[in-house]
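Database export, one record per block. Field names are fixed; values are copied verbatim from the stored entry.
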Amino acid sequence: MTTPTRTPRAVSRRAILAGLASVPAVAIDRAAAQQGGPFGTADKPIQIRMLANSAFSAQWQQLMVPEFNKRFPHVKVQIDGVPYTEHLAKIMLDITGATPTYDLYAIDDPWVPQVAETKQLLELKNEAKAWTAADYDWADFNAAPLAASEWKGGQFGVPLRCNMLLRFYNKTHYQKAGLAEPDIAQTWLEFRAQAPKLVQDVRGTGGVNAWAISTYFTRDPLTPTIWQAILNSYGTDLIDAQGKPAFNNENGIRALQTHIDLLQWAPPGAKAHGFTESLQAFRQGQVANMFQWGSVFRGTAVDPTTTTLKPDEVGIMVMPVGSNRPGTHRGIWNGSVSKKSPNQQAAWALLQWLSSKEGEYWHASVVGAFPARKSTLARPPAEAWQAPVFKTLQNAYEVAAAGRMWRPRSAKSDQAQTILADETARAFNGEVKVAEALASAARKIERLRL
C-alpha cells in the first residue's frame, strides 16, 4: 500500500481552465468531429440520450454537456435524471426493449453484472477499440474503480463518479478529549479504547453533548457496507470465489459485533441513523467520527451553507485496521454504451472524453467529482481542500483492491444486499444474536446461487 509522499499544491480554478484550453482533446479526431460522419454536421446534428441519477443529471446537463460540445459541436446530448430507487428498474426495462430510448446509461457499482448479463452493453476494450485513442491509457485507471464495470472478463463501462467509504473525524473533539488525532494505523481495538473518552462535553454546558461516532445503523441496503468494510479489514471476503457466503465465521461475527457495539458511543436515537442522520450529526459537531461516503466532504468541511465545520477541523482517512489492513468500501458510478444505440461512436466519444485524462481533470476541478485515474489524483488540485481528500482516495483505492472491498459481484447483488440488510437489522434490534443473524443470511444467500 503506497500513499503520495507530498501534498499537491492547490491551484486556482481559472488557471486550470486556462491550462485545459491548451490540452489537446483525446479520443476522436477533432477535425472528424467538425466534419460530421458519426458525429453529425451543422445541418444534420445527431442526438444521444443518457439515463443518469437525478442527484447529478442536471449538473451534467448544465456544465458537462457544453464542455463536451466544444469538442463535438454537432452531437446534441440529453441527460434524463431518475431517482435512485427507480434507476435500475428503468435501465433494465429500456435496455431489454426492442427499441431502447437511451444510448448511454449511468450504472451503479453493484448493478453492472445484472445489466451486463443482458448482453446489450458495448464491450469497450474490444468492440470500441477502433474508436479509442492511443493515449486514452487504460492502465492509468486505479484498479478498484475500473473493475467496477468489468464483468466476466469484459469492460462494459468506465468510472465517471467515484466514491469510497471513509472515516471523517473532528479534530476539535480529539483535542477536547486530550487525545492525539487518529492515523491510518489505528486499529479497531484502539478505536474502541478511545471511544468512551469522546463521549464528552465539548460546549461547556456541564453535560454530555458530543459522542464518539455516528454512521449507518438503521435497516438500509447500505448499512451492511459498514460491517463489510470491518470484515474485509480482518482479511475475510464477503463472498468466496465459488460465489458462496464467506462471512459466516468468527471474523464475520467479530465484524458485525464491532459495528453494533458502536451504538454505545453514538448519540441517543442513533439506531435510526442512516445517511442523512449521521451526516447531520457530524456536520453539527455532535460526533467525533463518522463512517460515510467520501464525496460528502465538501458539504461537510467546506460549504458554510451545509456545515458548521471548517476544513481545518475535519480529518479524513480510511477506516480503522483489523488484523489484516484498514477498511473501506467501493461505490462507483459507471458510464456504459447500449449495443442497440444507432450512435455508438458518438456515445463512446462522450464517455471517453469525460473519463479521459483531460476530461476527468476538468470534471474534478469544475464539478468536484472524485477521479479514478492515478494521474488526476497526482496533479495539483483545483482547491486546497481536495489535496488531503485525493491523497486518501488514492490510499482507499489501493486498500480496496487488495482486500476486495465491494458488494457481491453477481447479477443478484441487490438481492444479496437486501438479505444482509434484513438479517443484520435483526441483530441491531436485539431480535437475534449476531451469530444467528449471519447464519440465516448465509443460508438465504447460498440459495440465491450467486
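Remark 1: The chain has two domains: 13-163+332-402, 164-329+406-448.
Remark 2: The two ends are 30 Å apart (CA to CA).
End of record.
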